[in-house]
Design brief:
By secondary structure, the protein is of the alpha/beta class. It is built from 26 helices and 29 strands. The strands form ten sheets. Strands 6-5-14-16 form a four-stranded antiparallel beta sheet. A four-stranded mixed beta sheet has the order 10-11-9-12. Helix 17 packs parallel to helix 21, helix 19 runs antiparallel to helix 20 and helix 24 packs antiparallel against helix 26. The two termini are 59 Å apart. The structure holds one RNA strand.
Length: 883
RNA sequence: GGAGCGUUAGCUCAGCUGGGAGAGCACUUGCUUGACGUGUAAGGGGUCAUAGGUUCAAGUCCUAUACGCUCCACCA
């Protein structure tokens, strides 16, 4: 901030400069430091070639808030950043890019492709990191990691081999989800189920040797009949009991298949007869295993029918479907076609309908590790915020199936398994063995597959700290404290980190999981590329500043809940930034050539100073508590209210006269300045985690001797700032001022007309209090002079009266008093008080309340009743006076 | 088929462990006061989805119901 201050806050000119300063000073860097307690967050690594979206912005903002908070609290706060290689996502992008250049990935081969991929990573990898910096993320960039860097790759190998040796990783031919477009297997978590309107084709399978008798089956995927190896009925089903064991003619294939009995079949559903295709349906696969059925794979990897499909070979699956249905119809075997809505599995990356297929793949055995992960939650080592996500976590783990980790991709960690070209022996090892341990042949080739991208991110909390080496970082920063992520990623990542960490390190990877929701568009829709309704966080930053964006994302949102983004909200945030900017501008202007004075004894301060300090004190305490409990939205709104409503709208207004009169009374003016600066800087500290840039800019300008608010101490409750009497005096006076403002508006008193203000109290104590506190409110009360007294001398006849808790305030407005309006106003007040009295009496006349409620509550109600009764008496007196 | 979430002012949402309904935006009406009109002052607007229950006391706890949303699940 220069001497010539802009009237409005302009973030653009400030944010980059401050971020550079922080980087240069090394504030983001954390080191093993035995003198401090560690606090660690690992950043969910964004896709290396990704683009920052609102979801990231929310996620990173929350983490940045927590890490800045803890850093200020004196923790050695490490925010460990990095990026994810994002196997499929990146491979698809690189493949597309190559295709646009006329290059076919398969023609150039694995090595050349990987060169392109690394080049791509090099070119775009830094992009999202720079975008995070724009947000103000105070991550330790010196420690930036990448899931495919040397260390992370070593951790991946280590874990793979350990799990393999323990028997937790195995290779097997099992039914997996196959994406025909991406040409790779995918895990269950990557399959999205969506309901599609399709058909139920009812088909007759002729019974062998029984002319004219059929078994009617119903299917949603007729083309798979090419791979049928049985028809199943329920063993309890009387209708078909005689069929079991008979052979059926499988139309269009010339094969015959048996009728088997299996409890899996639901008698009520369809015809009660199910075609069994073990190679292309997970349930059928299980049935097939139970009955020793042949598994006939009828699909190529691109989901065309393979050579086993006879005349349909080479057709796409949907083409084949049409052709098969048509042929069945010609044969008179198509009974009927019924519209049917059913759930179809699609690949979450590309939307392609996945095909269940049997393929040799690598799996992680989940049962044992899942148990440990469940235990960690049960015994409290791991906690979700909010707690309701426990259930989602547990449900998934309790129903978990083995994890298919191999991918038919090139971009990723290659599986460390080697096969002997001679005898086929498999060796799992870090390095390619020189020779086959069985036949001593020297030709070995590595497994072609790579690992699921989540395999490496599952290790992220410890691989980034140097594991499997016993590094000082592991020792000091691990386990990490809190993981911040969206609920959509619990299955993919959180669970896998937990069981991996428990297995490899014996500890939970983090103690708390702070879950946030999705940022939706103004209409509540998910932001998505296809809808084109995404809002670019960088555009928001450009227009309104990172602080405004951050505040917007944190305001009015509870953990785990989705929120809607709207430009109106950003404007409100921007306005707040501008507000504190101007408050600071005001203070700076007043500081010019003047001195702040901190009295030796804070008891010497003016009442309003004591009031705002007390107020600050309680905000400090509450906000800190909220932060500790991850109630970030509540925390920031408290700071917001304090700064805007109490500090700006009341305190600054109250002390203005002291500032104008600085030359006459340097002590009062100087103390006001000291209080202004003290309260503002303390409040700025509370706000800093949320709005790092503007708070830094103001802080450093207000306190030129300070280097940065980032490294300032987090405010703590100070007993010496606690002035309960002063606080209540100012609160009383606020009530008086509000009453005066209200009356003046209803009497339409011109702004420039000042009046004497008579405060009539009934007790000596109140009188002294008002005598002490009122002078500071001259301007706010439009008062010529305050007269605190215990009777109505000197008030005159035509005065407006305002009844407050412990006094009656009179404004002798004479000619301006409209008796009718005044009566109306007082009547309204009387009514209000009567209602309150009725409420209090209702409670106090209730024996249940008096006997059972805590004493404190009862006493409080009694006091209220007394107060309201007194007030009503006064109102009634005024009314009778008017009449 | 399971599970979860939501239902509070015109709109978007807060409301922690039960003790007199809140914010922002929008709206109405004042304000060319020397920080800010991205401001300021005053104000209107809610039977906290419905029905029961627990309790002296329920937006808050419990049980149903309705509507909306989400996740999980192999119904061919």
């Amino acid at each position: 901030m220069s001497k010539e201050l802009a009237k409005t806050y302009d973030p653009a000119g400030i944010e980059d400069r401050l971020y550079r300063k922080w980087m240069e000073k090394g504030y983001f860097h954390a080191e093993v430091n035995p003198d401090k307690k560690p606090f660690t967050i690992v950043m969910p690594p964004p896709n290396v070639t990704g683009q920052l979206h609102m979801g990231h912005a929310l996620d990173e903002t929350m983490q940045d808030i927590l890490i800045r908070f803890k850093r200020m609290q004196g923790f050695e706060a490490l925010w460990q950043p990095g990026t994810d290689h994002a196997a499929i996502a990146t491979e698809v992008k690189v493949t597309e890019k190559l295709r646009s250049e006329g290059i076919d990935k398969n023609e150039i081969g694995r090595e050349a492709f990987l060169e392109h991929a690394w080049a791509w990573k090099k070119e775009y990898g830094g992009k999202i990191i720079n975008q995070l910096k724009k947000l103000g993320a105070s991550a330790d960039w010196d420690r930036e990691r990448f899931t495919m860097d040397e260390g992370c790759s070593a951790a991946v190998q280590e874990v793979f081999i350990r799990l393999y040796e323990k028997g937790y990783i195995y290779k097997g031919s099992r039914i997996i989800n196959w994406c025909p477009v991406c040409q790779t297997s995918i895990s269950d978590a990557e399959v999205e189920h969506e309901d599609q309107n399709g058909f139920f084709w009812h088909i007759n399978y002729p019974i062998v040797g029984e002319e004219g008798r059929f078994v009617e089956i119903a299917t949603t995927r007729p083309e798979t009949m090419l791979g049928d190896t049985a028809v199943a009925v329920n063993p309890e089903d009387e209708r078909y009991k005689d069929l079991v064991g008979k052979m059926l003619e499988l139309p269009l294939t010339g094969r015959t298949i048996p009728v088997i009995a299996d409890a899996y079949v639901d008698r009520e559903f369809g015809t009660g007869c199910v075609k069994i295709t073990p190679a292309h349906d997970p349930n059928d696969f299980e049935v097939g295993k139970r009955h020793g059925l042949e598994e006939i794979n009828i699909l190529n990897d691109d989901a065309t029918i393979n050579s086993l499909g006879g005349k349909y070979a080479g057709m796409d699956r949907y083409e084949a479907r049409k052709a098969i249905v048509a042929d069945l119809e010609k044969l008179g075997l198509l009974v009927k076609v019924v519209p049917h809505s059913h759930s179809v599995g699609t690949h979450d990356r590309c939307g392609t309908t996945v095909e269940p297929m049997i393929k040799p793949q690598w799996f992680v055995r989940m049962d044992e590790m899942a148990k440990e992960a469940i235990k960690a939650l049960d015994d409290g080592r791991l906690q979700f915020v909010p707690e309701r996500f426990d259930k989602i976590y547990l449900h998934w783990l309790e129903n978990i199936k083995d994890w298919c980790i191999s991918r038919q991709l090139w971009w990723g960690h290659r599986i460390p398994a080697y096969y002997c070209e001679e005898c086929g022996e498999m060796v799992v090892a870090k390095e390619k063995p020189k020779m086959c341990p069985r036949c001593r042949a020297e030709k070995l080739r590595q497994d072609e597959d790579t690992l699921d991208t989540w395999f490496s991110s599952a290790l992220w909390p410890f691989s980034t700290l140097g594991w499997p080496e016993k590094t000082p970082e592991m020792e000091y920063f691990y386990p990490t404290d809190v993981l911040v992520t969206g609920y959509d990623i619990i299955f993919f990542w959180v669970i896998r980190m937990v069981f991996s960490a428990l297995e490899q390190t014996g500890e939970v990877p983090f103690h708390h999981v702070l879950i946030h929701g999705l940022v939706r568009d103004e209409l509540g829709r998910k932001m998505s590329k296809s809808l084109g309704n995404g809002i670019d966080p960088l555009e928001v930053i450009d227009q309104y500043g990172a602080d405004a964006l951050r505040l917007t994302l944190m305001t009015g949102n509870a953990p785990g809940n989705d929120m809607r983004f709207s430009w109106k909200k950003v404007e409100a945030s921007r306005n707040f930034a501008n507000k504190i900017w101007n408050a600071s501008r005001f203070i700076l202007m007043n500081l010019e050539g003047k001195e702040c004075v901190r009295p030796d004894d804070l008891q010497d301060l003016c009442l309003e100073d004591k009031w705002i300090l007390s107020h600050l004190n309680s905000v400090v305490r509450e906000v800190t508590e909220n932060m500790e409990k991850y109630e970030l939205g509540i925390a920031v709104s408290k700071v917001y209210d304090f700064l805007w409503d109490e500090f700006c709208d009341w305190y600054i207004e109250i002390v203005k006269t002291r500032l104008w009169n600085y030359d006459e009374n340097k002590k009062a003016g100087g103390e006001a300045l000291w209080t202004l600066r003290t309260v503002l800087t303390e409040a700025l500290k509370l706000l800093h985690p949320f709005m790092p840039f503007i708070t830094e800019e103001i802080y450093c300008t207000l306190l030129p001797e300070e280097e940065s608010i980032m490294i300032a101490d987090w405010p703590v409750y100070r007993p010496e700032y606690d002035f309960p009497e002063a606080a209540s005096a100012v609160d009383c006076m606020k009530e008086v001022v509000r009453g005066i403002r209200d009356s003046r508006i209803s009497m339409q008193v011109p702004q420039n007309r000042k009046t004497n203000v008579f405060i009539v109290t009934s007790g000596e104590k109140d009188a002294r209090m008002y005598e002490a506190v009122s002078p500071a409110f001259g301007n706010l009360a439009f008062a010529k002079e305050f007269h605190v007294q215990n009777d109505k001398t000197g008030i005159g006849t035509d005065a407006v009266s305002i009844v407050v808790s412990n006094a009656v305030v009179y404004l002798p407005l004479e000619d301006l008093v409209d008796r009718e309006k005044e009566t109306e106003r007082l009547e309204k007040e009387k009514e209000r008080l009567s209602k309150e009295i009725a409420r209090c009496e209702g409670m106090l006349n209730n024996p249940g309340f008096v006997n059972k409620a805590p004493e404190q509550k009862v006493a409080a109600e009694k006091a209220k009743l007394e107060k309201y009764k007194e007030m009503r008496e006064k109102v009634l007196a005024q009314l009778s006076h008017l009449a």
